[in-house]
Amino acid sequence: MRKFTAGMLAAVLASAAALSGCSAVGGGKTELNFWYGWTGPEAEALEKLIKEFNDTHDGIKVKGLSQSDYQKQLTAITGGNPPDLASQFGQNVASWGVKGAMIPLDAYIKKDQVDLADFIPSALSTSQYEGKTYALPIAMHFSMLYYNKDLLKEAGFDGPPKTIAELKTYAQKLSVVQEGGRLDRLGLWPGADAYTFTQVFGGKFWDPDKKEVTPDDPGFKEAILLSKELWDKYGTENLDRFSASLGKYQSSQNPFFSGKYAMALDGEWLPTFIKQYAPGLNYGIAPIPYNEDKPELKNAGSIATSVFYIPKGAKHPDQSWTFLKWLTEKQQMVKFTAALGNLPTRLSSLDDKTYDSVPGFKEYTEYAKSPNLKSFPTLPFMNEYMDEITKKYNDILRGKVGVDEGLRQIKDKIQPLVGK
């Protein structure tokens, strides 16, 4: 998402501060200031819903503002000038909730009998911490396996890989390597999503009983070893040289669109990009290959979410809840997520006919019903934990540190944060 310049941000915060002092507009309506992180066409889709709400609710007027620098929300909250409602990523909920930056929603949920059982459990869990619900998820995201049908057919494959063993075979056979190790094409980028493959191997990142981070868990280690095995076939120097030649993600030169990758792990938004930038691409979408030793974990994956919350200090929390509840009801959720090409978080939304016109959604909405889709544990130090995983994962792949030592270093760095 685009960042504001300092001047633009100052104007936003000044505007918000001024608006927060106004509790009513013409006709006795309560005015709500709603900050959201989407921009461009995505912001336009949300503004349509805001207009629909304003047109159908007599006592409340919502004024939306695209504010994509999320950290500035915390500045506004601690400064006493928060918006009435805002969007965030699920990975920030626990840390913000324990800091008191988010109002718990449980009393509102109970009063209005909101059916939390209709939310996909792993998606809802990103909005909860230690028995409190601090937000509601509007959209979720996870990866599936994309494959170039023409390249697979050319290599003698009649369909995508189904198991991890097959994935390794496909990745090697689909790669094109010149003398000296120079890469012309990769079957699959070897630094693949370790969070997704951790779920494939049944791994975990946290032991709630021991209050202990578990980067040394066997399932996570297997995910790292899978990437390391693929990485070492080509070497850091060759992979870096190849990577430097790749085009921009959101363009016709996306390496999957241009045939530089035969397969890719990517999210539900990718078919919309393919339709825009590579409409002639002959591709398919398949489940993440499963571990043949644990077939009960088929259709695994790692969920991330986008959420709405009411900031601490909001001037009109009751009216904010009215809007938040309306925005996350099935009908509005379907409209919003279909427009964005994101996945809904309500089980009752998954089979909605609206998604029939969204490219690639049939595969995703079916996959979303899998009980093996999990989210990273909701923890107050979640961002620090994930940042450290990223750093050490990269170091392990590049041979700067051994696998066991790298995982130990993650634990040594993050475990002290548990007590804080």
> What would the principal axes of the Cα set say about the shape?
globular
| CATH fold type of the largest domain | D-Maltodextrin-Binding Protein, domain 2
Mean pLDDT score, rounded?
A: 92
Radius of gyration: 23 Å
Give a verbal description of the structure.
The chain has two domains: 209 residues, Periplasmic binding protein-like II (D-Maltodextrin-Binding Protein, domain 2); 198 residues, Periplasmic binding protein-like II (D-Maltodextrin-Binding Protein, domain 2), CATH 3.40.190.10. The protein has 420 residues and is α+β, with helices and mostly antiparallel strands. The chain is built from 17 helices and 15 strands. Helix content is 41%, strand content 15%. The two termini are 31 Å apart.
Write the layout of secondary structure elements.
Blueprint: H1 6-20, E1 30-36, H2 40-56, E2 60-66, H3 71-78, E3 85-89, H4 93-98, H5 106-111, H6 121-125, E4 128-129, E5 132-133, E6 136-141, E7 144-148, H7 149-154, H8 164-174, E8 176-177, E9 183-185, H9 194-200, E10 206-207, E11 212-213, H10 218-232, H11 236-244, E12 263-266, H12 270-277, E13 283-286, E14 301-309, H13 317-327, H14 330-340, H15 361-367, E15 373-375, H16 382-397, H17 403-418
Parallel strand pairs: 1-2, 1-3, 14-15
Antiparallel strand pairs: 3-14, 4-5, 6-14, 7-12, 7-13, 8-9, 10-11
Helix pairs in contact: 2-14, 9-10, 16-17
